[in-house]
Structures are given as structure tokens and as C-alpha cells.
Amino acid sequence: MRLVDLVAAHRSPSGMIVDATAATLDLSQDLADVVRHVDRAHLSELTLGPADLVLLLAGPNAPLHAGLEDLPQLLTVASQAIVLLAWPVDALPAADVCDAICRAGARVVTAVSVEASPVGGADLAVVVARRPAQDGGTVEDTAPVGPGHGMAEVVAAQIATMAMHMRELEHDLNRSEAAARKAQAALRQLERSTAQRVGRAVVAGVRHPGRAALSLPADLLRAYRAVRRHEPAQEGRRAVPIELPVGGSRHQLLLHAPADLLVPRMLAETGLGGYEPSAMACYLAALDVAGPGAVLDIGANIGIYAAIAAAMSPRQVVAFEPTPSLAAVASTFSDENHLEFRAEMIALGAESGTATFYLSDRSDASNSLAAGFRPSSNQIQVPVETLDSYVERTGLVPAVMKVDTETTEPDVLAGSAATIATHRPWILCEVLARRVEPRLEQTLAPHRYHWYPIEVPAPYREAGRIRGDRKYQNLMWLFAPERPGDEFWTALERRTAQLRECRPQRGASPRR
């Protein structure tokens, strides 16, 4: 059930809807005239009537989520509420949630799964009420949750059953996606194989015997060259030449990486000009106009942003990537191309220490410190450091930062507060819709940066609020320490034009 539909089913026409989730629900299109946003700490200051409906978000991550210990007091304030549950489905404390509702003296109306929730991670919802049943429910439906009633056990079982069903659906989806990826990989391998290309050349020769004497040898030679160009020298690995956007000259990097990694595969298929082209152009323009200082690629994956900065500028470059296999590829990428950027196998966050890192079952580009962001059957412990601590320890002075850490970007920037305040770097940051916007705004507000969604065409429009692209096409934002001037927009136009020429290489020998 969609959250908007759930709200509509339980709201009163005469009542107000109060959003006390701490994460701003984007319900403006449907409920703009009745939604009021309030921090849950100030919820008790409101005078709420029996027709008013309160939206709450409970989960494991304070202060974003209300904890189990907060729910009884919050529900006591509200006559009726929808409690969104943001725990991962395999760690959902269903019985404890019901116990918290019981301690508030509330009644459970229903528990439902939520589709396309504007609140990241909230897949289930419990509707509770502290008033007699009205239209749309019966006394039995809204029996008190408390000792002797048995409703707590019933609802806990209902929630646990829905959680199990969601886990099964996710498992089936992962299996289907894995099978699709395997089939696509097999098809690409077949299309690149020597036998397939030779077969096409021979068939063409049979169909056109008059031209066969001339065309067949040339077609076979092209097939041989294509195989030598595309098939990796070692089983399971690929070599990807990457043309750099350096004007009229032709300079390249060569990336060696496992064939199943996402970013090398995309670079092989589209070239640098087709890989996040608007974000890459903005990144290069920021390198052109930013003051002296280093470049930080935070959430580097195989280090393509770090490599481009190191190849095209004299700046010191550091890549941060906690996934061991990806950090190893980034380090080799740097060494083989003499780029001299450093690959740090650590995660950046709001606090220093160690943390569980969730390796995504879907894609190596979706690994994250955020529990539940993507299905993960494999987790590792990784070191975590704040950027402020790293800068103090190393003496690094950042001028440009790219941050793409799969929903933990607010934590990275929170741990960079002193660095941002002191050095004022240009920041390119991924913004995933409905997941990080409120926390990013709260974290960046004290620094008085200017916020721009990276769009096409330029110049970008400065934004008063941070709102991710719901279509997931333009994910990166520019957080600028000052309003970009003509120098930046000129550099952006130039870099955009240069990137258009960076297409996949067809048999050219890489030059360094």
C-alpha cells in the first residue's frame, strides 16, 4: 500500500496531518494543504484534537529515528498515529513495537506493508489510535493492545509474517536479477567471441559469393582484432582503455579489473564520455577553478574520479574505498598508470572507530555502511574515520571532494564539519531521493554553501532545498562554497564538449 493512500484512508476531513518523522516526507503534491512539519521533540507542545493524525518514524538509527523507548510518550500525545517502521526486515523487533504501543495505552487499527515510501528504509507501518473506533473500523479491529487482550501477540505475528514475506520477495528478486546479469554477460561474451564473429563472416561470404574473395579475409581479420581488443588477457578480467578529455591531443589511461565489476563494464561500453557525463564535467570544472589543495574521492569504487583528477591536474589525490577488492583495483589502477594517487581502505563517517560494512548482493557499486540500504548476505568489519581526524592526522588540505557513499553522505559531511568550515572545499555529492535530503540540509546549513542539482543544460539553478531526482537520472549535486562565476560556467562548457569526444576505444593502443 502506498503511504499516501494509507494516510488518506485514516485521516479525518476536519483534521490536520502532523509530520513528526524528523525525515521530511515529500507529500506536498497530495497533502500540501494539511501537512504540518514538526520536530518530534516539540510534538507535546502542540494541541492535537481527536481528528488530527500524526506520522512517526521509528527505527534503529537515532536521532533520525524515534527509538522504542520514545514511542510510548509520542503516542500518548497523539489521538491517532501512523508509525513507520525503518528496521531492516530481518531485525524487526515486532514484539517490542507492540509492547511500546501497549505502554501508550493505544489501540492497533491495522499493520500494513508500505510501497514506495518517501522515507528511506520504512517498509512497514502500524496504524494506532487512542479513541473509540469510528467509520472504517470496528471495536474488534481496534481492541486495546494491553494485558489480557492478546492483541499485542496478534499484531506482532502479523508484522513478523509481513517481514518474512518481504524477505522472500527480496530473495526472489535477487535471484532473478542475478540470472538476468548472467544471461546478459553470456550474450555479450558470445557476441564478442571469435567463433561468433568468424561465423558471421563465413555466412556473409556464402550469401554473397561474388564478394567473398575480397570481403571474407578482411572480415576474419576484423574479427580477430576485435577479440584481441575486447577479451581480457586473463580469464575473468578485462582491460579498458580510457580516453581523457584533454582537448585536441589523445591521451589514455588503461584500467585492468575483474570483468564482473560494474564501473569498468560501463566504461568499456560507453567510454568516459558516457559515464556520469554531467557529474564528470562539473567535477572537472571544479578542479579547474578551485583554489590550491587536494582532491578527495570518497566512496571511490575502482577510483575513476581519483584517476581523472590525478591524470589531469597536479593536485594531490586520495581515494577512500573500504571494499577490499575495489580498493585493490584502485591502487593497481594508480600504480600501472603512474598516477600516484593514494587508495585508503577506510570508510569516512560521523565518528571514528569500526563498523559493519554491508556488501550488496545486487551491485558492487551499492556497498554501504547503512544497514538495509541494499540486500546483503555478506558483511565485513571496516575501519571508520572522520575526515576531520584524517585531515588533522595527515595535514591534507582539501579543495575538491566527491562524496558517493550510498546514503551515508550526511555522516561523511558531519564528520567533515571542521574541514568544511576551515578549507571551504567544492563538494560533489550524491543525493538519493527520499533517503538523505533532510539530514544533508541539516548538516550543510551552518556552512552557508550554495546548493545546485547538476542538470543539463547548464547553468544550474540554485536550490533552496535539497531534493533528489525521483527518476534517478541526475544523482549528483554541487555544494559550492560561493556562487560559481563566469570562470566556472566557461570551464563547465569546455569540459562538457571535451567529454563528448571521449568514446569507447576501438583497437587503439593505450598511451600514458
What's the overall average pLDDT, rounded? 80
**Terminal CA distance:** 55 Å
Broad structural category: alpha/beta
**What's the gyration radius in Å?**
27 Å
How many distinct helices? Answer: 16
**Strand residue percentage:** 15-25%
Number of strands: 18
- The largest beta-sheet arranges its strands as 11-10-9-15-16-18-17
Give the helix proportion (percent range): 25-40%
Low-confidence stretches: 133-149, 191-195, 210-217, 219-233, 507-512
**Main pleated sheet:** 7 strands, mixed
Categorize the overall geometry: elongated
Task: Describe, in plain words, how this protein is organized in 3D.
The protein has 512 residues and is α/β, with parallel strands linked by helices. Helices cover 38% and strands 18% of the residues. It contains 16 helices and 18 strands. The protein has helices spanning 3-10, 28-31, 71-77, 94-103, 151-192, 194-207, 209-230, 262-270, 277-289, 304-312, 324-336, 387-394, 409-414, 417-423, 437-444, 486-500, and strands at 17-19, 35-37, 53-58, 80-85, 107-113, 124-129, 237-243, 252-258, 294-298, 317-320, 342-344, 347-348, 353-359, 378-385, 398-403, 426-430, 450-453, 476-480. It has a seven-stranded mixed β-sheet with strand order 11-10-9-15-16-18-17, covered by helices on one side. The longest helix is centred in the middle third of the chain and has 42 residues, at 151-192. It is elongated, with a radius of gyration of 27 Å. The model is unreliable at 133-149, 191-195, 210-217, 219-233 and 507-512 (pLDDT under 50).
